[in-house]
Amino acid sequence: MKKKLPLAVIALGIAASVGFANAASHADPVTARMELMKTIGAQAKILGTIAKGEYDAAAVSAAVTTLHDAALQIPTAFETNATNAESEALPKIWEDFSGFTAKAEGLQAASMTAMNVTDAASLGAAMGEIGGACKACHSNYRK
Ligand code: HEC
What does the domain layout of the chain look like in residue ranges? Predict the structure, then answer.
């Protein structure tokens, strides 16, 4: 789904992401894992904006914590081998689930490291690691 979303929808997504733990209980596993990824994407966006603007320790801490919690949920969210027309998940996820899980662990580790950032410079470095962890998985397991 690479559609451009109207700003109001993006804002809603960020607001909804606060309650993302509920996504796991969503009836449809494909929608639930997309919601989880949207939550992850929203946190990366928040951190990227802060890295370029005024440093806000409380906002960084909140986004990093949400990102780490979401990263911990990736393996469970993708456990069910299901797809739909919208999904960008590759079959390789379920053919090589331990490899996929290892990529999720990469994001868990990167977001754990990001808990120690103290300023825009260290946040920038942590963002590089986080972005690398997203890419390491997407380039192998996402269309
Ligand atoms: C362990 C693998 C993995 C990691 C790590 C990962 N992703 Fe994903 N992501 C996926 C897969 C697989 C999909 C496609 C899911 C689908 O469409 O069913 C996806 C989809 C997405 C989507 C589209 C969601 C939608 O359907 O609208 C966004 C946005 C996204 N990821 C952002 C990120 C960001 C940002 C990071 C890093 C901070 C990240 N992801 C880390 C596997 C991963």
Answer: 7-141
Which residue type occupies 58?
A
Ligand 1 binding pocket (C-beta < 6 A) is: 1, 30, 33-34, 37-38, 40-41, 44, 74, 87-89, 93, 100, 103-104, 107, 130, 133-134, 137-138, 141-142
Domain 7-141 CATH assignment equals 1.20.120.10:
yes
Which residue type occupies 13?
A: G
The model's pTM is 0.86
Residue 99, token pair as written in the block: 């490899």
> What is the residue with the minimal CA distance to atom 38 of ligand 1?
134
Tokens 């192998």 locate to 140
pLDDT, tens digit (0-9, with 9 covering 90-100), for 128-138: 999 999 999 99
